[in-house]
Amino acid sequence: MLEAIGKLGPALRGLGLLAMLGACQVALLGAAFAAVDCRTDAAPGVDWTDCEKKLIILRGADLNGAVLTDVDFTSTDLRDTNLLAANLEKATLVRASLAGADAKGAKFDRIEAYRTDFSGIDAQGAVFNSAEMQRSNFTGANLLNVDFRKAELGRAEFLDAELTGSSFTLANLARADLSKAKFTGPIDFADSFFFLTRIDGLDLSAATGLAQWQIDMSCGDSATKLPAGLTASASWPCDFD
Questions:
Q1: Quick check: helix, strand or coil at residue 4?
Q2: What is the pTM of this model?
Q3: How far apart are the first and last CA of the chain?
Q4: CB count, 10 Å around CB of 34?
Q5: Which of 65, 206, 214, 224 is a Cys-bridge partner for 194, taking CB atoms 3.0 to 4.6 Å apart?
Q6: Which residues, 6+ apart, have CB-to-CB distance to 104 below 8 Å?
Q7: What residues contact 239, with CB distance under 8 A and at least 6 apart?
Q8: CA 153 to CA 9: how far, in whole Å?
Q9: Which of 50, 85, 51 is nearest to 66 (CA)?
Q10: Torsion angles phi and psi, residue 117, rounded to 5
């Protein structure tokens, strides 16, 4: 019996070591969560994970590289903030204002941003994958090379927004207004939903991913330019009265 236990010794010591390592990992994880202090002032790199920051004024705050995942920013003033490379995944931004913010390279994946003001935002290279942004305002926004894949953009406004290089693959653009948007190069609309999407007067000749079924349900006019192989819908122009 003693001989058998002796043979098992190294294995038992190994299990003990694994248990110790597991305990250390749990302790470190607990310390990481404990480190999140929602009372911490706005600052570059601040971690506000899962904090409530609604109905407050953060205008002009420096949140460069901040961790803002799952934060509730409902109706919060974030105008002119520095959100450079910040992570706002799954944040709530309903009726908030990010007007004039610097959000280049920021992550907005799966945010909830109904009726949110993104006017004048500089979001070059940002990611809005699967974001909920119905009726949001992107007037004058810099959206160069932005990822809007699977985003909900029903009735969104893109007046004078720069969209060159952006991707709207599988996005919902129903009743969105792209008619006064700007882009001088490729823009991807593969499988995006174009129900009554306004493209009147828009030059889409350099757009990719468009199919005739999308054009047929959209709202263009005689000034709309389409990619080769696509034709104007017989229902154009739409009656918006």
A1: helix
A2: 0.85
A3: 92
A4: 8
A5: 214
A6: 84, 85, 122, 123, 124, 125, 126
A7: none
A8: 62
A9: 85
A10: -95, 105
Q: Which amino acid type is present at position 156? A: A
- What single letter denotes the amino acid at residue 158? F
Under a CB-based contact definition with an 8 Å cutoff, are residues 178 and 194 in contact?
no
Residue 183 is which amino acid? F
pLDDT value for 68: 98
Amino acid, res. 75: S
Q: Which amino acid is at 127?
A: V
Q: Per-residue pLDDT for the chain (241 aa), expressed as one digit of tens each?
A: 445 444 544 543 544 444 444 554 544 445 444 568 999 999 999 999 999 999 999 999 999 999 999 999 999 999 999 999 999 999 999 999 999 999 999 999 999 999 999 999 999 999 999 999 999 999 999 999 999 999 999 999 999 999 999 999 999 999 999 999 999 889 999 999 999 999 999 999 999 999 999 999 999 999 999 999 999 999 999 987 6
Cβ burial 166-187 (10 Å sphere, 16+ → b, else e): bbbbbbbbbbbbbbebebeeeb
CB atoms within 10 A of CB 32: 11
pLDDT of 36 reads 81
b/e sequence 64-75, b meaning 16+ C-beta within 10 Å: bbbbbbbbbbbb
Are the beta carbons of 221 and 237 closer than 8 angstroms?
A: yes
Reading the block at residue 48, the tokens are 């506000």
Q: How many residues does the chain have?
A: 241
